[in-house]
Amino acid sequence: MNINYDYYKIFYHVAKNLSFSKSANELYISQSAVSQSIKTLEDKLGISLFLRHKRKITLTKEGEKLFEYIKPAIENIISGENLVKSIKTLESGQITIGVSDTLCRYYLLDCLKTFNNLYPHIKIKIINKPSPKTIELALLGECDFSIVNLTESTYIDLTIHIIKESKLTFIASHKFEHLKDISLSLEDLIKYPILMLSKNSTTRKVFNKYLEKSNLHITPELESESMGLLVDLCKIGLGISLVSEDSILKEKKEEIFMLDIKETLPQISIALVHNKNIPLSHSANTFLDLIKRNYNTR
């Protein structure tokens, strides 16, 4: 039996209101259109749904039974329509972002703050893992997108938006004041305690590849999962840290300084990536546009 949804929708309103006129007002159609639709539905079903009295109508036994099933169905459809409308107007929704601690701190926090101020009803979930893991999450569709450090690998199934290029640099505290304003080679640094990110980090992999090409080897005194911690450890004089220039933009010059390195150190590419085969939600697209505007990228 193939019966038009609109007939059931009109039946729902009439059964709920027990009034043709009130239902017509709710549906923005004429009372005669409501009456005709109910008559057509009754003819198609082969039963009477309403008992007509002089000034009122009541449901028949069959009408009551049908209403038991139609009521939750129509109300679920209405709820679904309202949900879609709220998502479209950014009054609800959720975004899941994969990002490391370091990249969240230096490249995402300001955007998160702006987005939350603009769209406070959108829930934001952060999956905090290193870039190689968050790239996997993006490929699997387990997050809307990830903010990552890129390597020279080819990512076939990812759409990539480069948002920033950041140079690597060595920083020191005033415990190493004697190195200030001196031009140093990477070989000169070998005799000092060097602090770096862990071997599994993308930044470390980029730097190690650079060292290999230059036939150099530097063994760090200490490794950390967090670039922010490398900055803090440098401040207390624990060693000379390899960090990105972006990570020290807000640091006081009285506490640390950048070393003058003769060689041109590599850059790291920070990018937003998402699975090109999975469409982004309206909320995720809106966040993507905000990031692209913030970093003036495409």
TrEMBL record:
Keywords: DNA-binding, Transcription, Transcription regulation. Residues 3-60 form the HTH lysR-type domain. InterPro entries: LysR_HTH_N (IPR000847), LysR_subst-bd (IPR005119), WH-like_DNA-bd_sf (IPR036388), WH_DNA-bd_sf (IPR036390). Pfam families: HTH_1, LysR_substrate. The keyword Cytoplasm does not apply. Signal peptide: none annotated. PANTHER family: HTH-TYPE TRANSCRIPTIONAL REGULATOR, HTH-TYPE TRANSCRIPTIONAL REGULATOR CITR. This is HTH lysR-type domain-containing protein. It comes from Anaeromicrobium sediminis.
